[in-house]
Design goal:
The protein is mainly alpha-helical. The chain has helices at about 5-15, 20-35, 40-55, 60-90, 90-105, 115-130, 135-145, 150-180, 180-200, 210-220, 225-230, 230-250, 255-260, 265-270, 275-295, 295-305, 305-315, 320-350, 355-385, 390-405, 415.
């Protein structure tokens, strides 16, 4: 059914005030995502790994396998969070998940040297923390924004990059003064201290006139889950994100080890690794602006394909600090936009009718790639005594996977197709 003139007037009135109405939601989503399951394990594993290896005698691969455990748990937790969000709303799911995630992460301080305990704890963390993933937060941001959806998602997702800048120096300071157990307690407290109060105060679905407008739009637009799963577009996005997340997810948790293998001392490596977070923020914001102005698959192809050069540079035998910084910035920039791309493509190609469920399934593919990659990189390191082969694999895979986005075609016009 075509949009009526009354609906058009209502939408036109709503657009100029999108950020005036929705900035609090974006802020709460920024902090919620930044303190959630998506960045916390990913950015801190490399800092904790040497201490766990020293304390318990574990190998690099055994420690990095913790991220793979979170992936398996997310396969269950993400669709569950999506289903609960569709049934009960995103707010109660996010609030409960923030609390449980923070407490379960703090329980890592109780490790006693058992790999079984280590892996089970990661499984619990991922399962109860799935509601802190972008599944919940982006669903609500999408409900508040249309014309400025790309930049709104970019700002919300920049929380992961912001945490990436701050977490490693903060964690190194805590561990240096009180040990790695205090580090787990300090990191686990962050969601409770920062994300929870803001989510209680500001994170909510549209209400009043804004809710009336958005609810009408949601009923009018989008595919059902079954319709989307039958189409080729859904599986193109799933395959592309699986490969991209693997190729980008392997280097980041192993970045300290990669730099150490190339002769960088610990202080230099610590000064370089926060560049991931800094460039990720730039990728999210600039990427969001680009998504609002250009065809999203083309933006994804360019930005997610370019880090192939970065992986190739890091695989070489010798490079200086400037080259390392350039490569890290390039990887971080791509990491910044990949979440935006996933959320944006889901909303534009499938609409908001079944957004939470569809995003959750696509996120499973994303999580599989990024969760398995650190273990694979760690295993290659243990066997070959270097990260070069793994980095070269990422360099080849990235442009091939990014090219898949170009097969998606034009955005559908759901207003004309809905009954």
């Amino acid at each position: 059914m075509a949009t009526t003139s009354a609906d058009s007037i209502e939408i036109a009135r709503a657009e100029p005030g999108e950020f005036r109405r929705g900035w609090k939601v974006v802020t709460a989503a920024l902090i919620g995502i930044g303190c959630g399951l998506s960045p916390l394990p990913f950015y801190t594993m490399g800092v904790f790994a040497p201490h766990l290896i020293s304390s318990f005698g574990w190998s690099v691969a055994e420690v990095m396998a913790g991220l793979m455990i979170t992936t398996f748990a997310v396969v269950v937790g993400a669709p569950l969070a999506g289903a609960l969000s569709e049934k009960y709303g995103t707010r109660p799911v996010a609030l409960a998940s923030i609390v449980l995630f923070g407490l379960s992460f703090m329980s890592m301080a109780l490790l006693q040297g058992s790999l079984v305990q280590f892996y089970l704890t990661w499984g619990v963390i991922a399962l109860v923390g799935s509601g802190t993933l972008p599944i919940t937060f982006t669903r609500t941001v999408n409900s508040w924004f249309d014309k400025r959806r790309g930049i709104a998602l970019g700002l919300a997702m920049s929380g992961t990059g912001l945490f990436g800048i701050l977490c490693k120096p903060y964690l190194a300071w805590v561990i240096g003064n009180w040990g790695w157990r205090a580090g787990y307690a300090a990191i686990g407290a962050i969601p409770l201290v920062l994300a929870l109060p803001l989510a209680i105060a500001w994170f909510r679905e549209p209400s009043g006139a804004a809710r009336q407008h958005m609810t009408q739009a949601e009923k009018r637009t989008g595919l059902t889950r079954g319709e989307a799963l039958k189409g080729a577009r859904f599986w193109i996005i799933a395959l592309a994100m699986l490969i991209v997340s693997f190729a980008l997810g392997g280097p980041v948790p192993n970045l300290e080890g990669i730099l150490k293998d190339r002769g960088f001392d610990a202080a230099t490596a610590l000064s370089l690794t926060p560049l991931i977070g800094l460039s990720a923020i730039g990728g999210r914001i600039i990427g969001g602006l680009l998504l609002d102005r250009f065809w999203a698959p083309a933006v994804a192809f360019v930005i997610l394909g370019l880090p192939s050069l970065a992986c190739w540079l890091l695989s070489q035998g010798n490079y200086d600090v400037g080259t390392a910084a350039f490569a890290i910035l390039m990887i971080g920039f791509a990491l910044g936009i990949e979440y935006d791309v996933l959320a944006y493509l889901t909303s534009r190609y499938f609409g908001l009718k079944a957004y939470s469920g569809l995003y959750a399934i696509l996120y499973v593919f994303f999580a599989l790639g990024s969760g398995v990659a650190p273990l694979v990189f760690g295993r290659i390191k243990d066997v070959t005594h270097g990260y070069g082969p793994a980095l070269l694999t990422s360099a080849i895979a990235l442009p091939l996977a990014a090219a898949l986005f170009l097969l998606l075609g034009r955005y559908p016009r759901f207003e004309e197709d809905a009954a």
